[in-house]
UniProtKB/TrEMBL annotation:
It catalyses: beta-D-fructose 6-phosphate + ATP = beta-D-fructose 1,6-bisphosphate + ADP + H(+). Its cofactor is Mg(2+). It holds the Pfam family PFK. NCBIfam families: PFKA_ATP (TIGR02482), PRK03202.1 (NF002872). Belongs to the phosphofructokinase type A (PFKA) family. ATP-dependent PFK group I subfamily. Prokaryotic clade 'B1' sub-subfamily. It comes from Flavobacterium nakdongensis. It is an enzyme of class 2 (transferase). This is ATP-dependent 6-phosphofructokinase. Gene3D superfamilies: 3.40.50.450, Phosphofructokinase domain. ADP binds at R21, A22, V23, V24, R25, R155, G186, A187, E188, K214, T215, S216. It is found in: Cytoplasm.
Length: 324
């Protein structure tokens, strides 16, 4: 392998820049050329490439977002789109790819590999932490800290006004952000897709809280939660059933995807970026680099996509116990 292309794809996540930096510098260290591909697979189709040496990635380890930009390319889902992308890679002498993204990006990488036998390695980058084969995806730790900081602020005002807040957090179909940030921020209840409490249980729990002397409450709701009502409908439902509560809603939204990456995410990105390059140079392909029990590991891309990243049952129990 002589020239490695690196791209970021799907929703951006803090730590993606640190991973790009690590890939570029590991390439330089091992005397392989490195090319940055802009806007994910869309840039691959359009030939939006830039040669990157070690100095091209200076001062980005601390930056949120992705300097290579990101996209969710519809065109790459077509055979013609992938054909164009492959032709561009060939023309530019790129003979392997590092794809930083989530399961949609990995699915694209897998299909591309199966069609063209093109060496690909994935680095899990998404705030959702919904990838099998790694305890942490890039950006997840930073997003947790962002959410906890936001809820701490909401708690101040909730407390001053004796209010109940529903705080909606991201995570797509997974409850990792909600569960962990909810525990970290001392939430009263945490609603996650993996465990549907049901509306009665929620009302019951809020009633008990009131009776036990709590004057304000935070309920963290994962965006993919399956209780059957969105946060605004939940507010109406609770106000109808418990008129004594003054309820407000806060949807944290895309602020969860931005900001300076935490030290954890920077170190993780650096480790995974180096390992991705080393793995390609060892002649391996179709793997995702990840972190399991603090060791950098390799998982087949297919498993990473199809496997379930489950929320920890112990955490669910802890949350139930300490919200008494
Ligand atoms: O996958 C990351 C994520 O932020 C999810 O948590 C969320 O559901 C989705 O992306 C939002 O996507 P978009 O930025 O396209 O609105």
């Amino acid at each position: 392998i002589k020239k490695i292309g690196v791209l970021t794809s799907g929703g951006d996540a803090p730590g993606m820049n640190a991973a790009i930096r690590a890939v570029v510098r590991a390439c330089a260290f091992y005397n392989v050329e490195c090319v940055g591909i802009y806007r994910g697979y869309q840039g691959m189709i359009e030939g939006d490439f830039k040669e990157m040496g070690p100095r091209a990635v200076k001062n980005i380890i601390n930056k949120g977002g992705t300097v290579l930009k990101s996209a969710r390319s519809k065109e790459f889902m077509t055979t013609e789109g992938r054909q164009k992308a492959h032709a561009n890679l060939k023309e530019n002498g790129i003979d392997a790819l590092v794809v930083i993204g989530g399961d949609g990006s990995f699915t694209g990488a897998e299909i591309f590999n199966s069609e063209y036998k093109f060496p690909v390695i994935g680095i899990p980058g998404t705030i959702d932490n919904d990838i099998f084969g790694t305890s942490h995806t890039l950006g997840y730790d930073t997003a947790l800290n962002t959410v906890v900081e936001a809820i701490d602020k909401i708690r101040d005002t909730a407390n001053s006004h004796n209010r109940l807040f529903f705080v909606e957090v991201m995570g797509r179909d997974a409850g990792h952000i909600a569960l962990n940030a909810g525990i970290g921020a001392g939430a009263e209840e945490i609603l996650i897709p993996e465990e549907n409490l049901g509306l009665d249980r929620l009302i019951d729990s809020l009633r008990k809280s009131k009776e036990s002397g709590k004057t304000s409450s935070i309920v963290v709701v994962a965006e993919g939660d399956k209780i059957g009502k969105n946060v605004f409908e939940l507010k109406d439902y609770v106000e109808e059933n418990m008129p004594e509560y003054d309820v407000r809603v806060s949807v944290l939204g895309h602020m969860q995807r931005g900001g300076t990456p935490s030290c954890f995410d920077r170190v993780l990105a650096s480790r995974l970026g180096v390992k991705a390059v080393e793995t390609l140079l060892e002649g391996k392909t179709n793997l995702m680099v990840g972190l399991l029990q603090d060791k950098v590991t390799l998982t087949p891309l297919e498993q990473a996509i199809k496997g379930q990243s489950r929320v920890d049952a112990e955490l669910v129990k802890v949350s139930d116990i300490i919200s008494i």
